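Need C-alpha cells for this chain, all 456 residues.
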Amino acid sequence: MTLMLALQIWAGFGVISSTRAVADGDALMRETDSLLHLLQEAEVAQGRYLRLQTARALDDYRRTRGSAPVAFGQLARLAEAEQPDSGAGCSVMTAMLEEAFRSMDRVIDLRQGRPDDEVLMAAEARQMQAVDLARQQIALAQTQIGQRISARLTAADENFTIAAGASLLGFSFAIPSAIAMFRRLRRSREQERHLRLQVEAANLQLESRVAVRTAELLRANRALADANAVKDRFLANMSHELRTPLNAVIGFSDMIATEMLGPVGNPRYTGYARDILASGRHLLALIEDILDLSRIQAGRIDIDPVETSPRQLAAEAMSIVSTMARDAGVEIVLEADHAPDQARLDARRVKQVLINLLTNAIRYGNQGGEIRLGIAPAEAAPHAVRFVVEDGGAGMTEAELVRALQPFEQVSADRQRRAGGTGLGLPLTRLLVLAHGGRFDITSRPGVGTRVVVEI
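Here are the C-alpha cells for all 456 residues:
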C-alpha cells in the first residue's frame, strides 16, 4: 500500500510539473505571436509613411518601432522560464527581428535622403528578405515550442496513467485528485490542438505573404525596367533633337560675337551674341551631364584605362578652366612634385572629373582667392593616383553637403543664382569616380572652404 501511494504521489507531481510547463510554453507561444504582430504593424506603419511622407506617419512608425526592445526583454524572460537552456534560439530570433527593424529604418533614411532608384530598390529588397527571415525564424520557434508542449502533454498523460493505475491497485481514496488531473490533462490537450492550429495558420500566412511580396517585387522590377527603357529612349531623342540645333546656335553666335565675316553694325549685337553663345554652351553642357548621369546610373558607361600622365591631364583641365578662373579673380596652383609619371586612367573621364571639381571650386570660391590642385600616389593603393582639390571659399554645412551630392539639388538658392551651374557637377563627379573603381571623399566647413579627395 505504501509503495502504491508513493508511486501515485510521484506520478501526480509529474502531471502537475508537465501541466505547468505546458502553461509556460503557451505563454511563450503567445509572446511570439505578439512579436509577429509587432513586425506586421511596423511594416504597415512604414508603408504608410513611405506613401504619405508626413510627420504623423513617421511618428506612428517610430512609436511602433520603439516598443520592440520591451518585447524582446519579455521574450527573453518567458523563454528562460519555459526552458532555461533556450537562450540561444531566443537570441537568434531577436537578432533577426532587430535586423528586420534596422532594414526598415534604412529604407526610411534613404527615402528622406532622396537616393537613386536602384539604391532604394536594393534597400527595399534587403528589407523584404530580412522581414521574411524573421518571420521564418518565429515560425520555426513556434514549431519547436509546439513540439515541446506535445512532449510535455505526452509525459503528463503517462504520469496520469501511472497514477491512475496505482490508485486502482492500491484501492486508494484519491480518485477525486485523479479526476482533477484528468481534467487538467484534457485542457492541456485542447491547448495543444489550439497551438498546433496557430502554428499551421502562421505558416500559411507566412507562405502567403512571401508569395505576395515576391510578386510585388517582380512587378516593381518590371516597372523599373520599363521606366528605364522609356527614359533611355527619351534621352537618346533629346540628345539628337537638342544638340543638333544647339550646335548651329553656338556656331553662328560665335561667328557674330567674333565678327568673323566683318564688323557688326551695332556693337550691342556682339554683346547679345556673346550672351547667346554662353547660354548655348551652358545648355549643351547640361545636356551632356544629364546623358552621362543617365548612363552611369544604368551601368552603361564605358571606362577605358590607358597609360597616361596625371600631370598632363591636370594641366589640360587647368587650361580649359583658365578663362573662367581669370574672370573670377581666382588663381589655380598645381602641386605635383610627387605625381607619378604614368598611371592607368581613362584620360577623358579623369579630365572631366578634374574640370568639374575645378569649375565648382571657382564658382564657389572667393574672388582673389587660391585653389590648390594636388597630385600624388594614393596611400592605400600603390598603383592609384590621388587628386586633391582645395579652395578657401564659403564652404558648406553638413546639410548643404548632403544636398550638394544629390542631382539637381541647390545648396542655397541665393548662392546658386550667383554661382550658376547645373547642380550636376559633384553628383556626376562622384559617380564617375565610383564607376572608375575609385574613392571619392569630400569635406567642407563654413567660412573655411571645401576639400575633395579623389583616388583612382
